[in-house]
Write a structure and sequence with these properties.
Elements: E1 6-10, H1 14-26, E2 30-34, H2 37-47, E3 51-55, H3 63-72, E4 80-85, H4 90-99, E5 103-106, H5 111-172, H6 180-195, H7 200-209, H8 222-225, H9 233-240, H10 242-250, H11 256-267, H12 288-302, H13 314-323, H14 331-339, H15 341-350
The chain binds fe (ii) ion.
Length: about 375
């Protein structure tokens, strides 16, 4: 009995109501009744009937008001409402249709028609319920799959980026075995990119592409790369070729990050005044990522010990950087560097104590790989 469809009969005419109730009970439906609009509405929210047989003329909210409230409420609008009207009420039928009535029954009520109307309304309601359930189920499944996919994508991205970083580190391993230079200069580059107005995804691209700037060093022999003294002209030419070797290693990639890394590898030793290498590009002929990495790479090199030099103290380093404004460095990028010097020094201090952190903002002030 509990599973039988529930019908709410609302009619202020007790005899009419009883007649319908007896008829429908005979067909096995469960019945609840109301003789006024207010009671009908409270029964609707309390019992969620499948079908409402609704009379128009009723005290305490008429049939139109009840109909409007049922159809405007998100949780009850799926209930099938069959309006019971007199033959003369054409306008009333039009109004009821506008308010969302699903079907009509004429007075005096015919038993056969009543049975047929209720049967089709119950069928429609059950079909709608099934559809709603299926849609909800489908939405939940889509949500779950989307989450799984985005998690898998994040994992894949993390692994690819870490692999890129570790390959870049392999190239640096002979002359700088801790990888700290890459951590520092890539984070400096991301900070400078932010200062130059790059949006988050471009800052992230620079962060991950810039560690590959010297990947071409893999092709430079130890006798040159690790030479403690000054390089002669021939050795220097070989040393300079690390830009072209790097670009060759990275060329023809379909990844945006690796494409950017190719540009950076090729152009990070170009100088603003055109005296850099390998091409001798000048000013804005040098792609902006190359101009950014030039600043962060030189700053970190000046602050570090290399086979051929000691680390410069900070005031001497900054004086050399300033002297390079408009000569070695893009003046605008250098101005941004000085305006963000606090953050640059913060990164310098923090590197070495960093670990890979889950879910951290990839372009925060300091980023670990
Ligand atoms: Fe380089």
């Amino acid at each position: 009995m509990e599973n039988q469809p529930l019908i709410l009969i609302t009619d202020d005419d007790i005899w009419q109501q009883k007649l319908i109730e007896v008829t429908l009970s005979g067909f096995g439906y469960r019945i609840i009744t109301a003789t006024d609009g207010e009671t009908a509405l409270s029964l609707v929210t309390q019992h969620m009937p499948d079908v409402i047989l609704l009379d128009i003329q009723m005290p305490r909210k008429n049939g139109f008001e009840v109909l409007a409230e049922v159809k405007q409420n998100e949780t009850t609008k799926g209930i099938q409402v069959v309006m019971v009207t007199g033959t003369e009420e054409k306008e009333a039928r039009a109004k009821a249709l506008e308010l969302g009535a699903d079907d009509f029954l004429m007075k005096p009520i015919d038993r056969v028609l009543l049975k047929a109307r209720i049967q089709s309304s119950v069928k429609l309601k059950s079909y709608n319920d099934h559809l709603k359930f299926y849609q909800k189920h489908l939405e939940a499944e889509v949500d779950q799959k989307t989450q799984q996919l985005s998690h898998a994508f994040e994992q894949l991205k993390k692994v690819s980026l870490e692999t890129i970083y570790r390959l870049a580190r392999a190239a640096e391993y002979r002359d700088e075995d801790t990888g700290d230079h890459l951590l520092r200069m890539s984070n400096y580059s991301a900070v400078l990119a932010e200062g130059m107005g790059f949006d988050k995804s471009k800052r992230e691209a620079i962060l991950y592409a810039s560690p590959m700037h010297d990947v071409g060093k893999i092709g430079i022999p130890d006798r040159i790369l690790l030479k403690p003294g000054r390089l002669d002209l021939e050795e220097w030419d070989i040393m300079k070729s690390h830009t072209i070797i790097g670009a060759k290693i990275l060329e023809k990639s379909s990844s945006d990050i690796v494409q950017l890394a190719e540009v950076i590898a090729l152009t990070h030793h170009e100088k603003w005044d055109g005296s850099g290498y390998p091409v001798g590009l000048k000013e804005k002929e040098i792609p902006l990522p190359g101009r950014i990495v030039a600043v962060s790479d030189v700053f970190d090199a000046l602050q570090s010990i290399r086979p051929y030099k000691k680390a410069f103290p900070i005031d001497e380093t900054l004086a050399i950087m300033t002297a390079g404004r408009g000569v070695h460095f893009d003046p605008e990028v250098l101005d941004v560097f000085f305006s963000l010097l606090d953050r640059i020094l913060e990164i310098q201090k923090a590197v070495g104590t960093l670990e890979i952190k889950e879910n951290q903002d990839l372009v925060g002030p300091v980023i670990a790989f």
